[in-house]
Write a structure and sequence with these properties.
Blueprint (H helix, E strand, L loop, with lengths): L1 E6 L11 H4 L4 H15 L2 E6 L3 H10 L6 E5 L8 H9 L4 E5 L21 E4 L4 H17 L2
Parallel strand pairs: 1-2, 1-3, 3-4, 4-5
């Protein structure tokens, strides 16, 4: 099984950017933890990060030919991107939305997700562990869906 992980804008700054909100791990450390966990599950994980909405939309559109499931942290695009929402609707790819912080405990504008209504589920506020939970859920979902 292959799982794609898409990290949105500013996540390349993790570890430096607002550590009280997002934690002290860097994005590369989060990715390494995720890949280590994936190996224990017999899963292949490919991680990508972009600050470009168009690039993220392209990756989603190409995802069906690469992945069995997708984990996405759209970051700031969560609250603004109809394009990412529409791309997720256009593909038949089980997807879980992840946020390091609890978006529902933050500013009002951060509490709205354009992505949440079109994905399997959302994991928010559990820090880097949220990515691992999303991977476990995707593995379970895909295996359950396979005859």
């Amino acid at each position: 099984m292959r799982i794609g992980v898409i990290h949105g804008p500013n996540l390349h700054l993790l570890g430096k950017r607002e550590p009280g909100v997002y934690g002290t791990l860097s994005l590369s450390e989060i990715n390494e933890r995720l890949k280590t966990r994936a190996r224990t599950l017999g899963v292949t994980v490919e991680t990508r990060q972009s600050n470009s909405e168009g690039e993220i939309v392209s990756w989603i559109g190409e995802g069906e030919s690469w992945y069995d499931g997708l984990i996405i942290n759209p970051a700031a695009y969560t609250h603004t991107s109809i394009a990412i929402r529409d791309a997720l609707l256009a593909v038949s790819l089980p997807t879980i939305e992840v946020h390091l912080s609890n978006i529902h405990k933050r500013e009002a504008f951060r509490q709205v997700s354009y992505v949440a209504p079109v994905v399997l589920g959302t994991i928010s506020g559990l820090g880097p562990y949220g990515y691992e939970l999303a991977m476990l859920a995707l593995v379970h979902h895909v295996q359950k869906a396979s005859p």
